[in-house]
Amino acid sequence: MLGSFLVPYLEGQGHKVRATDIVGDGDFMDVRDYHALHYDFSEFEADVFINLAAMTDLEECETQAGDAINTNAGGEQNCVAIAAKFGVPHVYISTAGIFDGKQDFYDDWDKPNPICVYAKSKYWGELAARTYVKSVVLRCGWQMGSCEKDKKFVGKIMKQLKDGATELNVVTDKLGTPTYVKDFTLQIEHLLSNDSYGVYNAVCKGNASRYDVAEELLRLLNLQDVVKVNIVDSSFWKKEYFAPRPASERLLTTKLEEQGLYVMRHWKEALAEYVSENPEFFKV
């Protein structure tokens, strides 16, 4: 989802990019295979190593914990080891989900306490990345973007609307920050271009519940008087989404802002651009 925007953007900026994956777009590569990864990296002679590979479906991670840990933590151990061996900058994408949700907001220095397999595996990957001085670790919020590749909340809402839904059941007891892949890409580029290594909370401005996002999306689509949004709590979806999720994933971008490195917009502005620039995807 992030890669489908990041790769063409970097190519458009004049960079030569080798994009790999275990399925779909890009040449085949599995981050869990250290030797193949090492050979591929050395052949390409890259001067930056960005790891976007992850198992991100929380329910899949709960039922396939071994694969999740091997991919999200073990895969990152391989990536950062190779980046360190060749002495190149490295980027790892962490998640707001590494916090337990008991606080209203989390800054860059709050202690993580992951409560599900996905979050634990991503945090262990973050710890691996942090062992290397040239790592950029970015904790992302609720991602949105990339249209057909959007498998997150906005994409799921659009699927329901395209299927003819006139009512949506949306929770108000989960809080976070929608983060547009375009803004996130620009943040990655900005940190790399300034050799600004370290761990950063990196989300768009503002915060919201899932309900707030649904309401704003319907307003942008002029469907606020057509589609009804029913308020439910997380127990309504407990069968489909059984993995534990923190009540609050709201991140403060204090470190980026204090260092003058923050380049992201408010999530409502970003969502409006996402909708306006992709009329076919948002056509109902």
What does the model show?
- With 284 residues, the chain is of the alpha/beta class.
- It has a single domain (3-276), classed as NAD(P)-binding Rossmann-like Domain (Rossmann fold), CATH 3.40.50.720.
- 39% of the residues lie in helices and 15% in strands.
- The chain is built from ten helices and twelve strands.
- It has a four-stranded parallel sheet with strand order 3-4-5-10, sandwiched between helices. A two-stranded parallel ribbon has the order 1-2. A two-stranded parallel ribbon has the order 6-9.
- Helix 5 (117-129) links the parallel strand 4 (90-95) and strand 5 (135-140).
- Helix 8 (210-220) packs across helix 10 (267-276).
- It is globular.
- The model has no long low-confidence stretch (mean pLDDT 97).
Write a concise keyword list for the protein shown above:
alpha/beta, Rossmann fold, four-stranded parallel β-sheet, 10 helices
